[in-house]
Amino acid sequence: MSICAVIVTYHPTKEIIDNVRALVDQVDEVVIVDNGSGSATKEFLSQLKCHTNVSVVYNQENIGIAAALNIGVKKAQVNDHQWVATFDQDSQATPRMIETMLQAYDAYPQKEKVASLSSRYKDINSGLVSGSQMVSSPSEKLPYTESWEAITSGNLVKLSIFDTIGYFNESLFIDYVDIEFGLRCLTKGYKILEIRESVLIHSIGRPIQCRFLCRMLIVRNHSALRHYYITRNTIYTYKKFANMQPIWVLNNCVYSFINTLKMLLFEDDRRKKIIATFLGFFDGLVGRMGKCRYSILK
After folding, report:
1. CA–CA separation, 24 and 72 (whole Å)
2. What CA–CA distance (Å, rounded) separates 229 from 281?
3. Closest-CA residue to 156 (of 203, 108, 114)
4. With 0-12 CB in 10 A as exposed, 13-18 as middle and 19+ as buried, what is 131?
5. Cα dihedral 74, 162, 227, 16 sign
6. CA angle centred on 175, ends 71 and 182, rounded to 5°
7. Is residue 195 within 8 Å of 107, Cβ to Cβ?
8. pLDDT (tens digit, 9 = 90+) per residue, 155-187?
9. Within 13 Å and on the Cβ side, how many CA atoms surround 286?
């Protein structure tokens, strides 16, 4: 099976070089889509020219994660791949990660119903390995479990699915792009498999550890701008899938409420983040989508 990896970058650090090199021998092609990072990024990405299966698409500005992913997906389609693996710039594939995912897929009895394969991820700061918040009751004998969602990074998607489901939703810009796409797949009767032994080195947000009632909590500590997008796109997704996926919506409401409490109690720059949350909530309700228009959040 032919696989194309798509990595979206936006002002990446030089660790992107190691992250790409961890992938080049696991896939047939690597496409980097850079969202207007500038000349400094072009300079150190030029180190990858020695890899004949790596190419870079340079956008003139930040067009969002969804639009950048779609550029990579369409290039993978033109080059006749069967799968596309999507990654964030700060995630690193572990050895044989892709091979492990495909081996688990081979063991699944209804392959025609599978839309994507997702990895579990190991937080680079805490060392904890975790996965989706919502999975079916797993059997220890099986290398996979059915999931309700998959994060962008380390997600291996059948390219044929895009013909049925459509591409990533560019109106979301960033955040919930992966969740919304996965819910569309589930609504059409497809499956998302989380692969137990496939692990991605990954970090969400700028995590900090906080003590609360004798327990240590991991707080994501996203920027105010990210809180805006997360809130807005959460509301958009609830509105779209409340009738079709009510169990996911109710579960995610609890998850979102807990994360909001963590932000109010522990994160820095709370005033700005509260404003961002309210603006995102309002824009989600009225359907004001696309790139954030509020200069106060940037």
Report:
1. 16
2. 9
3. 114
4. buried
5. negative
6. 75
7. no
8. 999 999 999 999 999 999 999 999 999 999 999
9. 7
Cα separation, 176 vs 178, whole angstroms: 5
Task: Output the pTM of the full model.
Answer: 0.93
Q: How far apart are CA 99 and CA 117, in angstroms?
A: 11
End-to-end CA distance of the chain: 42
Residue 238, token pair as written in the block: 């609830």
* Strand ranges for the chain from DSSP E: 3-9, 29-35, 54-59, 83-88, 92-93, 114-123, 129-130, 144-147, 155-158, 191-202, 208-212, 215-219
Q: Which residue has the tokens 């710039």?
A: 89
Q: Would you give the DSSP letter of residue 94?
A: P
User: Which tokens belong to 246?
Assistant: 């009510």
59's tokens? 């956008």
Strands 29-35 and 129-130: unpaired
| DSSP letter for each residue of 226-266 | HHHHHHHHHHHHHHHHTTT-HHHHHHHHHHHHHHHHHHHHH
Structure token pair of residue 35: 């969202």
Tokens 């079916």 belong to residue: 136
| Cβ–Cβ < 8 Å for 69, 6 | yes
**Residue 169 dihedral angles phi and psi, to the nearest 5°:** -75, 105
Q: Among all chains, which residue has been given the structure tokens 């137990």?
A: 196
Count CB-CB contacts under 10 A for residue 291: 12
202-224 pLDDT tens trace: 876 666 666 656 666 666 778 99
